[in-house]
Amino acid sequence: MGDGSLSQDEIDALLQGADDMLSSPGAGQAADMSAGGGSLSPVERDSLADALNRAMAVAAPSLSAYLGKNVKISNATVEMKAPDAVRADFGRQYVQVAMGYSGSLNGKNLILFSSNDAGVVSSLMMGDESGTPPADLTEAHQSTIQEFVSQLLSSSANQFADRMGRPINTTPPALSIAAGAADLRLPPGGELAKITYNISIEGILNSKFYHIMEAAMASDLARGGAAEAAPQQQYAAQPPMGMGQQPMQQVGISPVKFPPLGEGLPSGVSGNIGLLLDVPMTLTVELGRTRQLVKDILGLGEGSIIELDKLAGEPVDLLVNGKLIAKGEVVVIDENFGVRVTDIVSPAERLIKIQ
Q1: Could you please report the per-residue DSSP string of 34-95?
Q2: What is the pLDDT of residue 343?
Q3: 49, 79, 125, 295 - which has most CB atoms within 10 Å?
Q4: Cβ contacts of residue 101 below 8 Å, gap of 6+?
Q5: What residue ranges of the chain are covered by domains with CATH 3.40.1550.10?
Q6: Rg of the chain's alpha carbons, rounded to an integer?
Q7: CATH 1.10.3080.10, applies to 24-237
């Protein structure tokens, strides 16, 4: 129309075009997904990264105790991707450990290490201070990696539970080798959160590992920041409690959790003796014992003879911190006394005596 106004038909056509643009995925939406946008806004991705960085900072000291080396995990980078896009990022061999959350967070986690990095971690946990990766990841090596990831995600769950205000349970870790993208055990569903971390192990490793989680769980965790700030506002609004008033809310207290000891003790005894190798112990050789009255002890002098409860030629006892571990015979080495070990107390007997 010449006066610049639009007819009703033209207005309807414009509205129909706008509806089509909103209802169909356009180029702008595809670009946002490829750039790591997806279902989380930039603010929510930052909130998720902050929560993950805090959790890893708390988990790192316990992981350091496992490895005997200082561990630092930082710089969580969050991307939202479709499953096929995630698989495209992992075309070579990786060691993957799956572990689930339930409670205030529900969903599956998948941790991915390169074969070399997994070998370094397992080697350190089995007591090799050089961290040299083994030629093959044996069942024992795989068990230590599972233990490492279990501690990592369990510690993170405790931090997330504090953030969400409700407990989080974990499932046992399940390890497998992914020879290629098709072998990845990705969490079910559509869009996934791919988190990349920097990991450094004192003087041995400076690399990255990956954390895949369901988009719904990532969203819940990202939005948990609002719940974290809410209690502070609630308590600030409450007047001081007077006489006879009861607390509005009880504080939940969780029992302290220590990391379980791993591999290393003889067959039938669980634990990682590698964590204790630098603990000093007192080794004592006991020739024999006897009991005497106070008056007899006060009567001792030079030349006195004390009869012991052992016969001549019987083996002497070797004790560590007062606990019997072996028997032996006395020998002389370059004018010094020594003991040749002739019998070792069985691990089961030693454990019973220690307990």
Answers
A1: HTT-TTS-HHHHHHHHHHHHHHHHHHHHHHHHHHTS-EEEEEEEEEEE-HHHHHHT--S-EE
A2: 85
A3: 125
A4: 107, 108, 109, 153, 157, 160, 168, 169, 170, 171, 217
A5: 24-237
A6: 32
A7: no
